[in-house]
Amino acid sequence: MSTRHSVAVDRGALAAETDGDPQRPALLLLHAGIATRRMWDPLIPALAERFFVIRYDTRGFGESTSQAVEFSNRADAIAVLDAVGVASATLIGASRGGTIALDTALEHPSRVRALVLIGSGPGGWDGAIDPAEEAMLDAADAAEEAGEWDRLFELELELWNIGPRRSRDDVDPAFLETARALGRSNRAAFEAQGQCIPVPLDPPAIGRLTEVAVPALVLAGEHDLSFVHDQQRLLAEHLPDVTAARIEAAAHLPSVERPDAVLEVLLSWLAEHAG
Fold this sequence. Notes:
hydrolase; Rossmann fold; 2 domains; hydrolase activity; Carboxylesterase_BioH; 20% strand
């Protein structure tokens, strides 16, 4: 059974929970921007059998709260580890959660044992984006700026969970309902967050990948956006100790869409690198 925590941070509180034995090696899970900590639900039973599993809603998402303030996502991640008494952990991040994980490893290397980056890229990346994908991203950005939340969540569903090279008929309807619910569960936080502004790592991770001193696993879904695959290749080329894998028949949230396939790769890698 999960234990819930409220972690105090500067002018905010992070909703967190833990599973498993605190005496075991720790995993800190960081969710994607189209989800909350609930995206990890399908993986928790298997992970908690072997690890102490920590997850939380980042500031401005899910059940976490924040006043208008500049803040560091890296400092928030460390605050969560401190709150549950963990000196170091393997950080597992999806999408923006992976960017936060990588940044945290660079800023706080003594607190990170290993990295798992799922559908993620380094901060400061400015590579080319397919024009059709860019148009979809621009439409989602416009909906967010206008506060058109229902439109935003449907656009994000099409873009990230179906993907630009699949149709709805190609995707399990039950997964789409779960993905839709994950996105919509951020609505209250989006409406209430005001101007909580994350301060980026400086200098950014894009030019510092060779500084990462821990093993890394980089994963991407087969049907994710093309620039995400470009980012995965970049990470695989420049991180010093890296394993790369592709999750078939999944888009941007493989831990939700194909949890068994993710666990098959993840548990094997963690057994070697996260002990």
